[in-house]
Amino acid sequence: MATWTPQPAGLQEILQTIRDSTITQNKIQRTITHKLNNFTRVPDYIAYLAYILSALPQEEDQVRTIAGYLLKNNARLILSASPEVATYAKSAVLSAFSDSSTLIRTAAGQDIVAFLGVLEPRNWTDCLQQLLVMLDDPDRQEAAFSVFEKACEDFPRKLDVDINGTRPLDFMIPKFLVLSEHPSPKMRSHAVACLSYFVPVNSQSLFAHIDNFIACLFKRASDEDPNVRRHVCQALVLLLAARPDKLMPEMANVAEYMLYSTKDKNETVALEACEFWLTFAEDPDLAPYLRPLLGRVAPVLLDCMVYGEDDLIWLEGDTEDTNIPDKESDIKPRHYGGKAHGLEREGPANGEEGAKRGAYGEENLDDEDEDDYDLDDDDDFADDMSTEWNLRKCAAAALDVLAVRFGAELLNVLLAPLKDKLWSTDWLERESAILALGAMAEGCIDAIEEHLKVLVPYLINTLNDPKPLVRSITCWTLGRYASWCTQPISEEHKNQYFIPTMEGLLRMVLDDNKRVQEAGCSAFATLEEDAGIELVPYLEPVLRNLVFAFQKYQHKNMLILYDAVGTLADSVGRALSNPSYVEILMPPLTARWNKLQDDDEDLIPLLECLASVTIAMGPGFAPYAPLVFQRCMNIVHNQLLCYQAYQQNPELDEPDKSFLVVSLDLLSGLAQGLGMGLEALISQTQPNLFQLLTVCLKHPQAPVRQSAYALVGDLAMGCFTLLRPHLQAIMNELILQLDPEPKIEFISACNNAAWSVGEVALRYGRDDPEFQQWVNPLISRLIPILLHPKAPRSLHENAAVSIGRIGLMHPVLVAPHLPEFAQAWCQALYEIRDNEEKDSAFRGLCTLVQGNPAGIAKSLLWFCNAIVRWNTPSPELNTMFAQLLTGFRNHDPDGWRAQVSTFPPAIQERLATRYGV
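Request: output the structure for the sequence above.
Response:
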């Protein structure tokens, strides 16, 4: 086969471009990036890069290394390369792996890992064989093992395969076990690491040697090298998650070792060991094994929560830094917009709350919901080491999970050490105890409640501490107990706990330290959510404090301030429409609005904040509506044009969807707040709102569709007569979006489509002939969603509500389908909190049952269960329930009695008490 050789002109062009890439001027860099991107279209580009890396020793190492990194980043091109190009690139990187320069060997090693990942080891077996041979070569074994470790970490499953009747791991695992005893600590570390990466994928080749592997870990547990010990701890954590059965017989020794390692002087070892307790606590099946260890584990975790010296170097900083501008690197990307319509469930079962504020100092997500949040930012140190996952945060997270798992038992263990630390003269000890109190809040709330009458005043007083780090963690912990502080128990409770907490946090909002401002503002937003309308009597001072912060805050905290203002609007609702409050709040928001250009990213959080403010202020927002409406329309129009240009020329950068999403959400807010007050604005604006909306409903990006379908529902509720003439085109898109098994990213769009259908149906009214054309297409899509076992719960609920509402308006068309969905319908909605949506849906179901009583016969238990779960049905609905139940009983008294006698006692009792049946 012909071997590949470079063309001199092509080689020189690529070489010169790489040399130029070392020049740091922005303008030159942009040109270079563009040229490098264009090179990827050259069929043998990867061969040129491999040639520069391996065959040009006269070139500077920096240039050759850059070629190596470009090769790694473009490794996927090997899949479409010709056989001679692919063969050359593979042999060249293996050749460069033996180069005399460390830089070149490192780059070549990364290329080997990238090619193995793309090609899969089964298609490059000679590379695996060469690497295995190198493990016996004293001069090359460490570099080869480094490649193996990266490959085992990145794609263990691709290595755990059968290749022509043999499994490479059957040779590799025993080899790694032998090398775990190597005299070199780096080799021992690589060996333990490589072995551990096959635990989570349940590799049978490893599990065939599981006892030898565990023996190897125990042998290496006392290794003098901290890196080896770190990997031993990591392996034990992975084993605990994947094969706890293998660790339980040795748990006394393992626990002893992990407790010892959690106190290791080397923080990387301590962090891996601490992960063991977090993993242990997260598995409910292991609770019986963990319970006896609680008395020893919890105090160790508490000690791990004290700031280390390294942390303090980064965090102490300027105590009064409010006037120092933020660096752009301080500001993490945030997720904006994405208005989702959901229904609240009774009690704590409603676990889909989205983002929770302030987990151990920053915003976190506890649940893996549908939203495309990027949580993988542990490596993003930026300038602020506090964003890094560290021992302190891991210990706090473990304590949080232990609190949920063991509640009062954990508090009993920690009560004495917590008291000692809270009253310590060392501020670092006090700070760590306050963090621990916050971490335990969710799980220990019942047990800790009797102590809050002392603890909350202590925390409020601690807001005066001279140390900013103490003030900031105190804000966070007060936020964790905000739900207790804001309970409307009595005037005394309000005066002793709620008002002082509110006043204390507002002071922190205006602190002179930026970290304290951030914590105070986040905690105050949590207080707002928990307090709701209890805040109304204090709105004026609250608004004046928040407005003052607009003058004081730098860039990063301004984003949190917008969130606090938006949350306040959501929490107090129409109370914000008082003209004096509008007068306080709108000038600073308008000033910010006027300062920002349409493409300024800071406009995004402001639009999101205004969406909440418009709904709350209602008609009070009218003077500001024309400018806001017009600007939203301009942004939507321009963003759609930008996206159209991108679709026609994919070389352009994909436009940021956030501008489009938050503009649609703000239009939704205007529709809810002003309703028909939008009529003049809609009629005067070109292009027309409904034309743009119809384009957004088909947008390829799921969050845009999600917000567009929410806007359809809000327009139906607020200004249906304006929407109606455009519904033919909108309904066609809406029906298509109703998918029983949507792609994960489209779940929220599908949810909003299902909800908006019900709103549109209600507004058309009873038996409307225009809507009738859509009843069967809608029902034929909503019923499969309701019956689909894998559809998310929220989708089941919205589908059920819309079926009920369509049934209420068009019972003759929907009633024949009742037997298909009655049971699933009742199961979807019986736990939902009483509200108007649920009420109209149930009135629809009752109307269907009146029209087709036989349709509910097989689902009578579920129907009765759903009825008795209501707390306060509307008089109309309650009458329907009574009439239907009485009708069933009177139609066949003996049959009714016989059937009801099989119901659970609680249902029988409520039916008898409430409805006399």
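The CA atoms of residues 181 and 219 lie 9 Å apart.
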